[in-house]
Amino acid sequence: MVPYNLLDEVSNGEIKKMNKSKIIKGFCFCLITASLVSCSANKPEKSTLKPVTKYQINTKKTDEAEAIEKLALQLEKQDRKRVALAKAKAKTKAKARQQAKIRKQNQLAKRKRMAQHHIASRKPIRRIVQKKVYRAPSQNIRYASLRGDYAHNPQTISFINMMSSKYGFDRGYLNYIFSNTKSTAFLKRMAYADAYGRRKSHKKRRPGRWTRYRSNFLTEKTISKGVQFWRANRVALQRAEDRYGVPQEYILGIIGVETRYGGNVGKNRAIDALAAMGFNNPRRGKYFRKELESYLLMTRRTGLNPLQPMASYAGALGLCQFMPSNIKRYGVDFDGRGGINLWTPQDAIGSVANYFKKHGWRRGGTVAVPAMASNRKYRSMKTGFKSKHSLSRLRNKGIIASNLGTISGKASLIKLNTYNGDELWIGGKNFYVITRYNHSSHYAMAVHQLAQAIKARIAGRGIIRQASL
Q1: Is residue 20 scored above 70 in pLDDT?
Q2: Which of 64, 69, 249, 258 is catalytic?
């Protein structure tokens, strides 16, 4: 509706004074104002519901869904960590393998340098570490047939055929070896003596056999060298005693009697000695041919030149004079260099101790004790390292000892002939074990007395006084 006051003003003549446009504008303004007032009166109440946003929809997820999502994230994180750890381990292992390979190469290079230094610095007797050569060198191919001292020996030809067929040795190589093998006059005499024995004499044996034998080993020079050898190798000797239970002095006694601590390892080539004993010995030729077989197999296994090592007239090798077959049975790599070399002190020490242990050495056992006889009944008794008598029987025969040590059960009665009469000893189990090295009562007693003399010298005392002195 149009306000009444405005119509009055128009009716009063003021309309005429306004412009047409102003009247129209004012009228339009009034209409708009009136329409707005009417609309506001009929406007509905404002809603209290708020609009739902995207964030509010996401927050309406349940607790279970949130837990599942968190668990999935944790599992994914653990998988990533596991993969990373596996990669790190693989990388570490690869690095360790590479380092081990480098260490092995360095060790091989070091061993090669040590071997070269060993060959260059040692005496000619010890220059035996050489490159493996199983076939005859090309310049010696002319040895396709056997020549030399054994060219017409049927035992040699049969042996070559056996080694070639049984072990695969090259026949030309064996022909080369035995063509260069010498049969000396000395070795022929030794083979003959071993086969037929020395000519028996009808003369009565001179007294003092043991005194003369003993004087070859129990000398001031041998005892002094034994003490020097002990000082140079005391660590290896102690280690051998701890491992095998054999006292150090008896290891020293064996090496001293055998080679004077390396001063006499033999003046004959091993191949010459074994061939002479094997091919010219009707009585024990089979045994020495087996030793020759073991010797050639050992040289092939270790890479030694079979024409170089020196030995005794019977073919014993090294500081401890092992026969070739015993090197494989009882030899010990005591210095850890990867091979058995009995020309080195440590391997010789370990091999002697192992030999005694394998033959029944009793740790802490008494070897032998001196005895006295109150009458001559002992002359009718069996004597020597093979004899076995009970201690009660020995007492009944008038044989007594001031101190038996650990000797018990049955013992050996040892009778040694000296310039002053018979010298009696009672031997235990360990005395018999020493005779496994050399089947002789004189030999075992020499080892025992030399061992005690060295032990006394090391302890600061003089040589132990024996009845034979």
Answers
A1: no
A2: 258
Strand partners, 310: 269
Half-sphere exposure (Cβ direction) of 107: Cα atoms closer than 13 Å: 9
Residue 378 is given by DSSP the state: G
Q: How far is CA 425 from the centre of its chain?
A: 40
3-state helix, strand, coil in the chain (%, to 5): 60, 5, 35
Do residues 327 and 298 touch, judged by C-beta distance below 8 A? yes
Identity of the residue numbered 429: K
Q: Token pair for residue 124?
A: 């000619």
For residue range 128-146, list pLDDT tens digits in order.
444 444 444 444 444 678 9
Q: Is 258 a catalytic residue?
A: yes
Retrieve residue 373's tokens.
């006889």
pLDDT digits (tens, 9 = 90+) for 445-461: 999 999 999 999 998 76
448, 431 Cβ separation under 8 angstroms: yes
191 DSSP β-pair partners: none
DSSP 8-state secondary structure symbol assigned to residue 380: G
What is the per-residue DSSP string for 48-94?
A: -PPPPPHHHHHTT--HHHHHHHHHHHHHHHHHHHHHHHHHHHHHHHH
CA pair distance 22, 41, nearest whole angstrom:
29
